[in-house]
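[audit] Reproducing an earlier prediction to check determinism. Same input, same settings, fresh worker. If the tokens differ from the archived copy the diff job will pick it up downstream; this log only records the rerun itself.
[audit] input (403 residues):
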Amino acid sequence: MSTLKAHRSILPYRWIVLTVFIFVAMISQLLWLTFAPITSEIATLYSVTAFDVSLLSLVWPLVFVITAIPVGIYIDKHGFKKSVTIGSLFLAVFSIIRIFSITFDHNFFLLLFAQTGAALSQPFIFNSITKLSSSWFPEEEQGIATGLGTIGLFLGMMIALAVTPSIYLSYGLLKLLLIYAYLTCSATFFFILLAKEENLSDVSDISTSFTLSDLWTLSRFKPFLILEYGFFVVVGGFTALMTWIEQILNTLHGIGIDEAGLLGGLMIIGGILGSIVIPAISDKIKKIKIFILLDLFIGITTLYLVGIIGNFMLLAAVFFISGFFLMSALPLVLEFSTQYSVKGTEGQTSSLLWFFSQVGSVLLIVIIEPINALFKSYYYSIVLVVMLWVISFLLFIGLKEKK
């Protein structure tokens, strides 16, 4: 009886745990996309090509592909607190090392090494989102909890895309990296201090008995294959476009660093609002699939418009609407995927989806530029991503939502 009372009394603390997790998730994306909106400036400073600079972002999904599955198993065995702590420590250490790439005569290889080290954090953080929501939150709150967890990812993207160019132009690269290192160390400190692990004793036996063979069987299950493809092309395509955002907007529409950062920021702001509003409505009416299809349809439409609209104000509206619907699909699909997972194995099943998203990120980041070179326009790179998203939309129509 006393255990039950203690359990109930600690439940309100779930919002504090979620808040410090959001802080760490935000930092992970901030470090990932630090250099994407200032690609041309970094290329000049470090005397490298724009493609070389893209490697600073590309290395993150590459590392994720290698580490996703074993980290997912680790999360289910040891809980999200230890896992996110490890990830946040990677972020803190390597955010500091990035600074030394400037002091050592703008050493690009040291900067790439630091980005690679920081990238080791990503699977520990990404794969913990559904684990946190399923172990701390009741079922009727898990959609909004997952949505709020992913908001941290969007916040980091927004700061990276919208704020980085302004800080860089005002204070230079050294102060930019110092500020981001300070934020990273602060996030790590507060997470270690405030985060707690909810009691998972009721599911630990299940998670340890769920083997790699079971995971392989799940990955070949037809509905899960459709989800894997969706993460491969939608999350992967979004990551690729965010990596090349400055180059795409500048080449197609003559938009500079500041304006490109603002458009990226508007997309993320829309995504943050959408990830609160749409999952909340989904939880209330207990329907997920219809909202995912709506998000994909509007995301496909707005992405195509990015390739053909040159007016900045219209683009601003398109980016905001795209973010509101497209990015809110992420927490919904993560929640939808739990219908096919065994209780206590959320870390492993979500790691499968994130694995395919990062494989897609690697391939599509690499493909964007060659398509531009072949057809002399980034418009055709956008068309490719649109076509892949249309296929995902059509496949998802065939999925059945469990009652």
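[audit] rerun output stored. Observation attached for the diff report: The CA atoms of residues 16 and 122 lie 21 Å apart.
[audit] end
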